[in-house]
Design goal:
With about 300 residues, the protein is α+β, with helices and mostly antiparallel strands. It folds into four domains: about 25-75 and about 150-155, SH3 Domains (SH3 type barrels); about 85-140, SH3 Domains (SH3 type barrels, Roll), CATH 2.30.30; about 160-190; about 220-295, OB fold (Dihydrolipoamide Acetyltransferase, E2P), CATH 2.40.50. It has four helices and 19 strands. The strands form five sheets. Strands 13-5-4-1-14 form a five-stranded antiparallel sheet, with no helix packed on it. Strands 6-12-11-8-7 form a five-stranded antiparallel sheet.
Length: about 300
């Protein structure tokens, strides 16, 4: 084989090998919650500074980052971002709810066919109506509504697991300090992990007036108001609810409410009011919602 052909084959093989190695070792992008670090920052239609501005965010706002492209992050639009859908493409099922009649219905930035498309809704999806504008409904952004934000304006927030671990460590440290001062320390435990025989044994050693009574949770049947992010609970065997809300202070509650309402507000920041119910054997307590609304 001529030398030129040998060199060509060698360098082609080398290039393909390097390309394969880089792609196989590329770090997989994982979606995360980010916090905006400056005021008046543009979320754009595309990953370029010349693209249309969809929305403006300020320092301290949280955004869900779903992917990246060079120096840009693709983010899910906040619940307060403007979104519009043509009235003839949906069926109004309530004063504030409408069902999408077709697949891949365009959600636009303004009430005009010439306005940029910022998302798409699927057939059967429930939309939240905010206002009526001629032949258009102003709605809360659908799940598949995205924009682009430059990476330098957002920082990654610590995961919920890490935050919980830090809180646990702080609580343990505080408990040790309280014990040194001779103060009472109350530990939060999972009822499923408590051995009833151990409880009975401990109760026998307590004075009569100090014995622990097996009662329902002190929070049972209390009226509560929780603000947080509504998410699907997942496919859990025997689950008492299809959704959960993660509060601002990272507490998790199951939510029982109208299914269409839950689906329409999934992944939005919501305010939920209702009765808090203790569920024996369950990891989380349940809110039987009497009211639920999106928070801007």
């Amino acid at each position: 084989m001529p030398k030129i052909k040998k060199d060509l084959v060698f360098y082609t093989y080398l290039f393909v090998s390097i390309l394969f190695f880089c792609s196989s070792n590329a770090e997989e992008f994982l979606p995360f919650q980010g916090e905006v670090i400056a005021d008046n920052i543009n979320i754009r239609l595309d990953s370029t500074v010349n693209s249309d501005v969809i929305y403006k965010v300020n320092k301290g706002q949280n955004l869900e980052v779903v992917s990246e492209f060079y120096d840009w992050y693709k983010v899910r639009l906040p619940v307060s971002a403007d979104s519009f859908v043509r009235r003839d493409l949906v069926l109004r099922v309530d004063t504030r709810l409408a069902k999408v009649l077709r697949d891949r219905v365009n959600i636009r930035l303004k009430p005009s066919e010439k306005s940029p498309i910022i998302g798409r809704a699927s057939k059967g999806e429930i939309l939240n109506i905010v206002d009526v504008n001629g032949d258009w409904y102003k709605i809360l952004p659908v799940r598949n509504s995205y924009g682009w934000l430059h990476k330098k304006f957002i920082k990654k927030i610590e995961s919920v697991v890490k935050i919980d671990e830090m809180k646990t460590q702080d609580a343990r440290a505080e408990g040790i300090d309280m014990a040194k001062r001779g103060e009472a320390v109350v530990a939060e435990v999972n009822p499923d992990q408590v051995n009833s025989k151990e409880i009975n044994a401990e109760q026998k050693n307590l004075p009569q007036e100090q014995k622990v009574e097996e009662t329902k949770s002190p929070y049972e049947d209390n009226q509560v108001c929780v603000i947080g992010i509504l998410k699907p609970y997942g496919k859990v065997l025997g689950r008492p609810a299809t959704h959960k809300v993660i509060s601002i202070d990272k507490k998790i509650f199951l939510v029982k409410a109208d299914e269409e309402k839950l689906r329409s507000l999934t992944y939005h920041k919501v305010k939920i009011t209702g009765k808090l119910i203790y569920l024996p054997g369950q990891r989380y307590q349940l809110i039987e919602a009497s009211g639920m609304e999106a928070m801007n």
